């Protein structure tokens, strides 16, 4: 291997993973229209739905990957499609003919997120028994569809939801915890979209950005029956000591809901959700399998750790750095040249006011570990990247870490510890010249970590 090859290999392995979970290609390869029957084929399952009884077919949805999914559905349905509307992150768009696109705020919702939710609800409630809704749901949908809720006479505003989202994202809460709170504060999440669509039928094609693929957590489960409660949401708020920092109306609404008798209306719920068909199209494991195949084709001995990596980004970085040194010393498999792969979604507890995301934070922490213990450093190369191309509120997907990157940082006169202390990983890697920028990928299946030991 020449010195530059591991960096190009890291990029190639990442791109192979992204290609496998390309939303347009997934829909085109798995959804077909034969005569008047819609067929959805998965690896071990086939779903068939006759369109004969439907007078109208609408495509709705929200998420970073939803625009290319919508383009595929327009091509598949052709003249059978009545229309539709989707909400996507700004810049994550496509060219559509019948389906309207609204670009909205992410990760913090904005007025366009509220407008999109209102428009989708308006379409949903006008449907009847002879209406088919095809919902295209992917990561980011929680912010992109925002309908501030009401409970016990307390209503919240967009500003309340924005502040709540910002605090939840900054406190180190996991995505499932964040979405548990969001669902209680929403008029569209937590299965409420399914209720708006009833008595219409819905087929919901879902691309998972959630560790474990919990359908109730992906985009906060707009079409999945909700089994979380106001009491659980309050517990999360207290766990992260947010009660005194949240908008008063948010806390009051959660407390009002918790005081009311819990009644999920199971009879009505069963009736509603009998007309809901949730289908998982792709996830992080799909991407990891493609990454493994690409790494093997490049001559690496591979190991896929897990698609469910969670926890503080800095702690996970220490695990990877320790593993890298063991492989470099020949103490653990796989044998060199080795490629270790993992995926999931870590968290960052924000302590400073710097710029970055969880992948850049992980790469910078990995780099710090290399600096502290440089065993085998000349052979170790690491990339952590978001599959949507945007790591946190930045234009980078992630960052690289290696001995060469460490040397570049030292030549630039920048100190790793100082940048970590203020969560300023983006600025560090920008100065060192090793940010990983892909632009929007129009997909989203959590994050990827790729470790090469040559």
Describe the structure.
The structure is a single chain. The chain is 40% helix and 20% strand. It is an alpha/beta fold. It contains 17 helices and 17 strands. Helix 1 packs across helix 12 (284-297) and helix 9 (230-239) crosses helix 10 (248-259). The chain is globular, with a radius of gyration of 23 Å.
List keywords for this structure.
454 residues; 40% helix; globular; alpha/beta; 6-stranded parallel beta sheet; 17 helices; 6-stranded mixed beta sheet
In short:
It is built from 17 helices and 17 strands. The chain has 454 residues and is of the alpha/beta class. Helix 2 runs parallel beside helix 3 and helix 15 packs across helix 17.
Q: N-to-C terminal Cα separation, in Å?
A: 8 Å
> Tally of extended strands?
17
Helix content: 40-55%
Radius of gyration: 23 Å
Mean pLDDT: 93
**Tally of helical runs:** 17
Low-pLDDT windows of residues: 263-267
What coarse outline follows from CA principal-axis ratios?
globular
**Main sheet: which strands, in order across?**
6-5-4-7-10-11
Percentage of residues in DSSP E strands: 15-25%
């Amino acid at each position: 291997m020449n010195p530059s090859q591991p960096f190009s290999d890291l990029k190639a392995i990442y791109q192979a993973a992204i290609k496998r979970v390309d939303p347009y290609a997934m829909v085109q390869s798995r959804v077909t229209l034969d005569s008047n029957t819609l067929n959805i084929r998965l690896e071990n399952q086939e779903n068939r739905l006759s369109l004969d009884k439907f007078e109208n077919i609408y495509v709705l949805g929200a998420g970073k990957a939803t625009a290319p999914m919508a383009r595929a559905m327009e091509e598949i349905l052709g003249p059978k499609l009545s229309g539709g509307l989707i909400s996507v992150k700004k810049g994550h768009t496509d060219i559509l003919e019948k389906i309207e696109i609204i670009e909205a705020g992410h990760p913090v919702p904005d007025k366009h997120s509220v407008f999109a939710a209102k428009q989708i609800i308006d379409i949903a409630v006008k449907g009847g028994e002879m209406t088919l809704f095809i919902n295209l749901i992917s990561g980011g949908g929680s912010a992109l569809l925002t309908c501030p809720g009401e409970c016990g006479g307390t209503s919240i505003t967009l500003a309340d939801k924005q502040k709540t989202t910002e605090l939840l994202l900054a406190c180190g809460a996991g995505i499932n915890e964040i979405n548990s709170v969001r669902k209680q504060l929403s008029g569209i999440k937590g299965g409420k979209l399914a209720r708006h669509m009833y008595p219409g039928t819905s087929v919901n094609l879902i691309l998972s950005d959630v560790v474990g693929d919990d359908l109730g957590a992906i985009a906060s489960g707009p079409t999945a029956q909700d089994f979380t409660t106001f009491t659980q949401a309050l517990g999360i708020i207290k766990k992260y000591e947010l009660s005194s920092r949240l908008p008063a109306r948010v806390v009051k609404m959660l407390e009002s809901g918790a005081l009311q008798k819990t009644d999920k209306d199971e009879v009505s719920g069963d009736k509603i959700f009998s007309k809901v068909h949730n289908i998982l199209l792709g996830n992080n494991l799909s991407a990891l399998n493609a990454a493994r195949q690409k790494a093997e084709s490049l001559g690496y001995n591979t190991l896929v750790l897990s698609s469910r990596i969670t926890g503080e980004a800095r702690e996970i970085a220490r695990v990877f750095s320790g593993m890298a040194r063991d492989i470099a010393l020949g103490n653990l498999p796989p044998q060199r040249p080795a490629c270790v792969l993992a995926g999931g979604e870590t968290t960052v507890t924000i302590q400073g006011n710097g710029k970055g995301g969880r992948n850049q934070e992980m790469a910078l922490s990995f780099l710090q570990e290399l600096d502290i213990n440089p065993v085998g450093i000349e052979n170790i190369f690491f990339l952590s990247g978001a599959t949507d191309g945007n790591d946190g509120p930045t234009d980078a997907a992630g960052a690289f870490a290696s001995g060469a990157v460490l040397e570049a940082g030292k030549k630039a006169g920048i100190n790793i510890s100082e940048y970590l202390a203020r969560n300023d990983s983006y600025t560090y890697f920008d100065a060192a010249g090793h940010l990983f920028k892909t632009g929007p990928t129009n997909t989203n299946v959590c994050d990827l970590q790729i470790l090469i030991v040559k």
